[in-house]
Amino acid sequence: MAAKPDPNFKVVADNRKARYNYEIGEIFEAGLALTGTEVKSLRTGKATIAESYAHVDRQGEAWLVNANIPEYLAGNRFNHPPKRPRKLLLKSREIAKLSQAIEREGMTIVPLKLYFNAKGRAKLQIALGKGKKLHDKREVEKKRDWSREKGRLLRARG
């Protein structure tokens, strides 16, 4: 196999269940409004975004809800609440697109990946997702199992 090119960013948290539970549509990259202790805690790499989601409020601002960034151990009284809502930094055109998709098409804003980019800024990869039904999940699992089995058979044969 060819080696993957080394990405220019450090992944802090990855939401692997999102691609299983949602049919992923358009993907956006959003900045995060964070405090100092949150950034230091993210650099240790212990954040989780598995149960989190994003929403757009009436003022036209996007927020990340239920993401867990644990307290920074050396932060003492300046520490942050671990599950506070965090503002997503997006362009107004992108926020309008997200809010329209939520209202009209019944989609959800799903966080996929939390990482530091090449400049050292914390970024969140979000996507518009439509929830999969149980039969869709089973079908995807069946295809994946068959492709693995096919690969095994071909290797054993030749």
UniProtKB/TrEMBL annotation:
Signal sequence extent = none
Its GO CC terms are:
cytosol
**What top-level branch of life does the organism fall under?**
Bacteria
Q: Which Pfam families match?
A: SmpB
UniProt keyword annotations, A-Z? Cytoplasm, RNA-binding
**One record GO biological process:** trans-translation-dependent protein tagging
SUPFAM superfamilies for this protein? Small protein B (SmpB)
Single annotated GO MF = RNA binding
> Basic and acidic residues bias: where?
137-152
Region of interest (Disordered), ranges: 137-158
Subcellular localization(s) per the UniProt record? Cytoplasm
Family to which the UniProt record says this protein belongs = Belongs to the SmpB family.
Functionally, this protein is described as follows: Required for rescue of stalled ribosomes mediated by trans-translation. Binds to transfer-messenger RNA (tmRNA), required for stable association of tmRNA with ribosomes. tmRNA and SmpB together mimic tRNA shape, replacing the anticodon stem-loop with SmpB. tmRNA is encoded by the ssrA gene; the 2 termini fold to resemble tRNA(Ala) and it encodes a 'tag peptide', a short internal open reading frame. During trans-translation Ala-aminoacylated tmRNA acts like a tRNA, entering the A-site of stalled ribosomes, displacing the stalled mRNA.
- List the HAMAP family hit by this protein, alphabetically: SmpB
Name this polypeptide is given: SsrA-binding protein
Which source organism does the UniProt entry give?
Methylocystis hirsuta
